[in-house]
User: Which sequence fits this backbone?
C-alpha cells in the first residue's frame, strides 16, 4: 500500500480502510502514467519508422496501413505492459512489495520476525499474485491477437497459452525480481515488520476464529481497493473528457 504494508489472514487484517482504498486509486494512477509513457514510446517508434503506430494504438489506423498488423498489436500490448512495470518499479509500492515478501519469507524460513534475518531473505515469492498474472497475461496480450491469423493462428495461440501457464513460476519470479519489487528502505522494512507483528498478535488471541465470507473479503481489503479503482477510473474518464477543452484554452482566449 502507499505508506505501508497490509497483511491479512482472512480473519484479521492490518491495514486501515482509507489506505486500502488509496491503494486502488494509486494503482489506477500508475496505470494512467504507464499509458502516457507507452503512448510517447509508441509515437517515437512510429515517427522514426514511418508507420502510423500511434493511430494503431488508439484504434484509428486502417488495417491495411500497418504491415504485419498482428505482430504490431502484440508489440503495442507488450509496450503498455512493460511501461506499467517500469512505472511500478519506480514507485514506492515496489519497495513495500519487496518488504512484504522478505517478511513472509523470514517467517516461513526461520519462524521468527528478526530485523537482521529479514534483510537476507529473497524478494521473489512463488505465491505472489504476479505469478498468477504471468500465467494469464499471455492470453490477452499475445494469444488473442494470434487468433486473427488464418490457419496457424489458433494452434499458435494455444501454444502461447500453454507455454505461459507452464512457465508462470519462472516468469513470475523474474518479473518480481526486476520490476514489481525492489530492495526496501529501512523505513519500509520496519513498516512491514510492524504489520506482520500486529497480524500475528491478533491471530494468537484466537487462532481458530472463523468469519463469514464477506468479512474475510473485507479483511483482505478487496472491496476497499476495488472502490478506489472505481473512483479513480471515474476521475480519469472525467479528465480525459476535459483535456481537449483545457488544451484549447489558449485558442479560446485568442
Assistant:
Amino acid at each position: 500500500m502507499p505508506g505501508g504494508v497490509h497483511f491479512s489472514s482472512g480473519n484479521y487484517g492490518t491495514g486501515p480502510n482509507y489506505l486500502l482504498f488509496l491503494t486502488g486509486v494509486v494503482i489506477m494512477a500508475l496505470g494512467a502514467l504507464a499509458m502516457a509513457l507507452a503512448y510517447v514510446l509508441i509515437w517515437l517508434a512510429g515517427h522514426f519508422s514511418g508507420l502510423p503506430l500511434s493511430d494503431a494504438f488508439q484504434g484509428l489506423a486502417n488495417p491495411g496501413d500497418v504491415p504485419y498488423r498482428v505482430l504490431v498489436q502484440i508489440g503495442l500490448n507488450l509496450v503498455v505492459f512493460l511501461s506499467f512495470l517500469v512505472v511500478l518499479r519506480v514507485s514506492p509500492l515496489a519497495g513495500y512489495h519487496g518488504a512484504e515478501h522478505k517478511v513472509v519469507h523470514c517467517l516461513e524460513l526461520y519462524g521468527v520476525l528478526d530485523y537482521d534475518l529479514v534483510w537476507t531473505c529473497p524478494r521473489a515469492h512463488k505465491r505472489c499474485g504476479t505469478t498468477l498474472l504471468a500465467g494469464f497475461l499471455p492470453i490477452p496480450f499475445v494469444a488473442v491477437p494470434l487468433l486473427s491469423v488464418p490457419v496457424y493462428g489458433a494452434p499458435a495461440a494455444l501454444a502461447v497459452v500453454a507455454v505461459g501457464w507452464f512457465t508462470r513460476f519462472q516468469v513470475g519470479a523474474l518479473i518480481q525480481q526486476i520490476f514489481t519489487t525492489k530492495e526496501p528502505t529501512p523505513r519500509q522494512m520496519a513498516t512491514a515488520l510492524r504489520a506482520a507483528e500486529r497480524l500475528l498478535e491478533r491471530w494468537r488471541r484466537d487462532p481458530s476464529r472463523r468469519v463469514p465470507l464477506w468479512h474475510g473479503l473485507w479483511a483482505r481489503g478487496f472491496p476497499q481497493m476495488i472502490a478506489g479503482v472505481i473512483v479513480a477510473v471515474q476521475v480519469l474518464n472525467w479528465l480525459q473528457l476535459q483535456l481537449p477543452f483545457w488544451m484549447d484554452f489558449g485558442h479560446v482566449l485568442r
Notes: Residues 33 and 101 are 25 Å apart (CA to CA).
